[in-house]
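A reminder from the course coordinator: this example appears on the midterm review sheet, so study it carefully.

Given structure:
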């Protein structure tokens, strides 16, 4: 008897839950239908109200739109939303009604909301709307005290890390945490959207041959270089004005120039007060334009002191170029997962044979970076091989090979450093926070002020500087997992975070390849500031 009662209670409970679930689904469907009906009815009302307004305007009684029209529309919209809310909670009915009203008024009365024409995307968060003088004053204070930039006018805090595009290049870890500072960016036109009835915009930027910011000073593994980045193609992409989701793609050309000094890898743009800020006038210090006037277009870290200001007016010597990379890069506010698979190229470094690596180069004359054989064109009449040997030099340059005897006046091999997943002593790269580290070593110490200098003791650092505590070397996790952050525009400004990852091929310099680990992956996190401009 007890068993029968328990069975009956359980059965009734299950039936009740099923009925509740069915009711919830039915209610959701009904609410969607009600919302669709309310929108249709509101559309008819707006069309009728506008027609009445135009008739009044035609008789000279009013100029349409008038207060009577806007009042009627406001009252009807409020009534529709209120009635709908009593039966169905939540939803975006209000925004749907706004879009209907705006679309009809735009079409019938030419009261269209001015549409954005273009966007300018730059490195950095937190300074929009702040007067230049106040921004420069705050930046100078921050540079002197190594603190956050505090803007009383904006009521916000912009930390130095939020004004920097950070990149991890190669697999050794020496070229990780590279920094491209505020000032870099591009401008692109918005098309295919009106900002009201269609908010999904296409992007096109006439960026070919233009610089992505001023030169960036980089010191990695004891090798000091100056890096210039320019677009090798026009930029394309998409932007949703409602969600703030942004994706942009372009081919970029990265030039690497040797520097004789670690303290000034790039020729500096030095203002008279020795404290460079964006937009300040100065004089080129070093390089082919030494002594000529310049305008600060980029700011490196405070570790470079008075030499942290760079400018496209102060290029590095062309004869000093030691490497050039041409790669396709995509930046997105979405999710990026960049990892190995069964199709990934085999690692070639001793101790890692049999493992898969993230990147290598195709076995043809171009040596383009690749993640699998599918990225490589036909070479020598056979399918291309990612990481395959090819002739370097001689009449057979770029032809697939297995021995140097097949490459007269040349050699057979794979350009760049032999690939490995990482340079960790135990081969294990452990994800930590927003990066990864070799917890078993190697451990390295850097000077506290001139952070690009490695050290063992204080004597390895400049006068007044000291050697910091050893830290585990950075490494590349597998997979690289990055998450961007979309940001819908407010007051003509948005501040999303863009992320991306791609493969870089081998440089023409053995020192650069060995220090950074090229061919290899590159990933980046880009805190951006997007400003919207109206058509003139």
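Designed residues:
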């Amino acid at each position: 008897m007890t068993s029968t009662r328990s069975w009956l209670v359980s059965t009734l409970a299950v039936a009740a839950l099923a009925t509740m679930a069915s009711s919830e689904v039915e209610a959701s469907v009904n609410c969607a239908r009600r919302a669709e009906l309310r929108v249709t009815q509101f559309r008819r009302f707006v069309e009728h109200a506008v027609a009445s307004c135009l008739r009044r305007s035609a008789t000279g009684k009013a100029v349409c739109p008038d207060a009577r029209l806007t009042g009627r529309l406001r009252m009807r919209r409020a009534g529709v939303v209120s009635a709908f809310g009593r039966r169905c909670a939540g939803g975006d009915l209000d925004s749907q009604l706004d879009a209907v009203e705006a679309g009809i008024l735009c079409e019938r009365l030419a009261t269209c909301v001015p549409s954005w024409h273009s966007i300018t995307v730059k490195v950095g968060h937190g300074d929009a709307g702040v007067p230049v003088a106040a921004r420069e004053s705050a930046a100078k204070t921050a540079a002197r005290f190594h603190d956050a930039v505090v803007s009383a006018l904006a009521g916000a805090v912009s930390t130095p890390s939020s004004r920097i595009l950070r990149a991890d290049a190669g697999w050794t870890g020496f070229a990780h945490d590279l920094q491209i500072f505020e000032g870099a960016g591009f401008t692109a036109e918005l098309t295919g959207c009106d900002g009201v009835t269609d908010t999904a915009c296409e992007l096109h930027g006439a960026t070919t041959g233009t610089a992505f910011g001023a030169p960036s000073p980089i010191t990695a593994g004891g090798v000091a270089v100056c890096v210039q980045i320019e677009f090798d193609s026009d930029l394309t992409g998409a932007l949703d004005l409602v969600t703030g989701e942004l994706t942009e793609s372009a081919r970029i050309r990265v030039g690497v120039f040797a520097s004789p000094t670690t303290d000034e890898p790039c020729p500096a743009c030095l203002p008279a007060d020795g404290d460079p800020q964006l937009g300040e006038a100065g004089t080129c210090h070093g390089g082919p334009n030494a002594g000529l006037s310049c305008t600060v277009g980029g700011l490196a870290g405070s570790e470079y002191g008075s030499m942290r200001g760079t400018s496209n007016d102060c290029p590095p010597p062309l004869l000093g170029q030691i490497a050039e990379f041409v790669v396709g890069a995509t930046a997105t506010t979405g999710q990026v997962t960049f990892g190995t698979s069964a199709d990934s190229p085999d690692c070639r470094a001793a101790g890692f044979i049999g493992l898969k690596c993230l990147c290598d180069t195709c076995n043809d004359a171009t040596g383009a970076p690749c993640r699998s054989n599918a990225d490589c064109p036909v070479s020598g009449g056979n399918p291309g091989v990612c990481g395959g040997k090819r002739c370097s030099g001689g009449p057979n340059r770029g032809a697939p090979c297995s021995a140097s005897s097949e490459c007269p006046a040349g050699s057979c091999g794979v350009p760049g450093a032999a690939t490995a997943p990482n340079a960790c002593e135990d081969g294990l790269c452990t994800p930590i926070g927003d990066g990864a580290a070799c917890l078993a070593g190697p451990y390295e110490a850097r000077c506290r002020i001139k952070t690009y200098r490695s050290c063992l003791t204080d004597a390895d650092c400049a006068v007044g500087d000291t050697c910091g505590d050893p830290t585990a070397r950075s490494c590349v996790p597998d997979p690289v997992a990055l998450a961007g952050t979309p940001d819908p525009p407010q007051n003509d400004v948005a501040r999303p975070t863009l992320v991306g990852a791609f493969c870089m091929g081998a440089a023409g310099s053995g020192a650069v390849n060995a220090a950074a680990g090229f061919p290899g992956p590159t990933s980046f996190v880009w805190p951006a500031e997007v400003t919207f401009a109206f058509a003139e």
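DSSP finds five helices and 31 strands in the chain. Helices lie at 2-58, 67-87, 93-109, 132-145, 510-516.
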